[in-house]
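Methods: example folding runs. The two proteins below were folded one after another, and each record is reproduced exactly as written to the output file, sequence line first and structure-token line second.
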Amino acid sequence: MRPIRTTALNLALALPFALALTIAPTAGPAQAAPPDTITIGMVLEPPNLDPTSGAAAAIDEVVYANLFEGLTRFAPDGTVVPGLAASWEANEAATVYTFHLREGVRFHDGTALEADDVVFTLDRARGPNSTNAQKALFEGIESVAAPDPLTVTVTLARPDGAFPFKMAWGDAVIVAPETAGTEASAPVGTGPFRFERWVHGDRVELLRNPDYWGPAPALARATFKFIPDPNAAFAAMMAGDVDAFPNFPAPETLPQFEADPRFRVIVGTTEGETILALNNRRPPLDNIRVREAIAHAVNRQDIIDGAMFGYGTPIGTHFAPHHPDYVDLTDLSRHDPKKARALLAEAGQTDLTLRLALPPPSYARRGGEIVASELRAVGIETEIVNLEWAQWLDQVFRRHDFDLTIVSHTEPMDIGIYARPDYYFGYDRPDFPALMDRLAGATDPAERSEILKAAQRMIAEDYVNVYLFQLAKTGVANAKLEGLWENAPTQANDLTAVHWTD
């Protein structure tokens, strides 16, 4: 029998505060050691700190790979690599996966990670009462077993060659039954950092985990500082109050940082498809002609230039342009106001007003003003409603109370969300889930590529949403910081390799 788990955290962390210096008359100046703390700027404060029960990207931006870990994980280049599972193998049909856990892994409360914790996590995520925002990742699981404390066997209802990829998502991190109910405010994971405190409205503080199973991080302390205002973010970076802002909210100021040797500007790619989402279940947006009209009314390049100051790649479907299976379908929804007005007339919509709900990110607030102007030019009025992130999650994502909204979907390879008729934008074409079922059972790369291309075209031709641009990762950091991700294969600020140079 395993020992009873305790939830009391060890609040002491030994830090090398003492430094003895002996100065001889001929000695040169003492060399100061590089700092071992960091302050990371973030635009949005997470609504909670439990990635297994929240949809906000800001949760993973704090906890992914720092506090919590999964069986597998995403590397900086987007590949799937071992996490808490040192290795795994699948049977020939890709219906049974066996994961071999690392030895010596402990949760932050001191108790050992065992296979039963994995069974609990996966059963909880797929259970009838699951609040996991990506429950579909686990729906293919038929059963989970723990033949011994370091082995987990997952049996799937159908073949799934992408199962290790699904287990790398932040929604699939491993939690213990004793602490699962309090992860939102007192997270207990297995990662290289442990939770110290959350000052609501201001910051989250992490400390290095002295009992981490892997290489110790160079940083002893990390603070995530929440600065939603772009002007305040710029001031904080210039003053040195923040060491890095991986997703900087004021791209118009990047040239100033590029000209300043104190800073390094980091521009990369993300998995963030930025869309003008349409509520397909609500009239008149349930009419494809109205949706197509809106798509032709919007000039995506205007939004990239006006809201993102040129940073962003135009997209015509819900798929990342850097993926080898991407299909450029932007011409299907090219800017054509004349066609937009004709389609609205065909649909009998001559006096249309729609509500545009905008969450806090600058791409949404700035982009929303441009969208409203361009819709007005074809005869559609909008009522703009600015929402805080928690309000957006409740009103738009959960209760589907909206007409239009602008948001970036930053999860990797998430085209499968269009197979969920209860998802917030309400796409309900049976052909699409059938495509995703084919994809799940396909193991041949050529067949998978064909299916992915067909899926991209289907949602583009149905004008489910208006596909705007792939969000660029525009970051600013102190020039002496190394190890920050350039690209964002998932929504994370992974600090495991971050360190200061002399």
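Second run, written to the same file directly after the first:
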Amino acid sequence: MNFVGTIWAILPAIIAIVIALKTKEVYISLFIGIFAGALLLSNFHFIKATTTVFETMMTNLSDTWNIGILIFLVFLGTIVALMTRAGGSRAYGKWAHQKIKNKKGALLSTFGLGVLIFVDDYFNCLTVGSVMREVCDEFKISRAKLAYIIDSTAAPICIIAPISSWAAAVSGYTSGDGFTLFLQTIPFNLYALLTIVMVLCVIYFELDISGMKDHEISARNGDVHHGSDEYQKGQEIECSDKGQVMDLILPVLFLIISCITCMVYTGGFFEGVSFIEAFTNCDASLGLVLGSFFTLIFTFCLYIPRKIISYREYAECIPTGFKMMVPAMTILALAWTLGDIVSTHLQAGLFVATFLENTHIALAILPACLFVIGAGLAFATGTSWGTFGILIPIVTAIFSEGDIMLVIAISSILAGAVCGDHISPISDTTIMASAGAQCHHINHVSTQLPYALIVGIACVIGYIVAGLTQNVILTFFAGVCSLLLIVFFLKRKYA
């Protein structure tokens, strides 16, 4: 029996996600999903399935982009270990505690930093988490809520930022002037815009619903990890008493500037290419590796001559940083393998494309349908960019360039893909947010899910209005009103 390109293609992802949410054990759950996909590919031949599993895993781990991301994780983990060992993180935490007066201030600071670092979602997740963890711990904010704020200011911000790796990816999937078309989609990208509104509601109204309420109660009692000890070892690093606030601020600023500079360097900016074009053509993975490597050199020059830490202590932070990132790296390797089996080998995208071509959807509800389909595909495959690549060519073939419905259709695809990516346990951005907050991955996924689904419901309503009116103001108004009504109801329920 041939399972390729059929509805069975998404079964492995569903198996992995359901088991992970049920058991809270992500590693075995992902591997079971991978093996289930390999069994479908091999028509349930055990030896062939086992071979397929490890061949696919080795292929993904030898991919230059993926290798770059893993190296970046190791370098960033080392940088975090160095900032902690030098006492910069502790000094910043004390300073921030004096400047930030309450829990809302800490969460707003996290949100603001996430919005500012819009260049790349991986970079955003890990940097914001590194800077704000100790501050949020001071105000007894659960790691689950920190991870939610980080994740909500990663992909949702990048997808509406003209200068980001995501803008470059979307532009590459469209014909003609892709960058101009991307700019036109921003006002219609409801999931990104409404997620920002939702985060502000969560902060201002202290909207702790479902599992998040339990995590916040644990945090108020002193357990920000809600019983998980997965990242406890990362807190055992000894801190120097010589550290100052600048020992955290300067490396972070250098990291931001260095990564942006290296990303445009890989795109040819220093060879005469415009800044926007350089970002469009950049190799984000290589740029992040170069930027983080130069930051390691910078921290060496910042700490060693001032004798904040010794040469030996600096060297010891390298394996320490690696160990801190092992959970994220393991989940990423498994998620990449599962995503490859579902999307490339079993061709889940082919099933979706065939379904759309054979289904005559009314124009008025097409944006809402594209949003739901995009969310489902990204949820199952764990990739937004792959979803863009599958669905955007379909709608560009349906609508002519310059048609407002083309803009709305692409916007709904982008919004749906980010929504699915946001709630998927096998999404690399979700994994990075867990790593940045040092939160148990399934704790992050399960507590974030209700908030993302609420925004998703509001988006469906908004896109129905978009299909009927093709008016951006009415579309946004319908989405915001729907979201606020749901928030108001939930606030009364969980008060």
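Comment on the second run: The chain has a mean pLDDT of 85.
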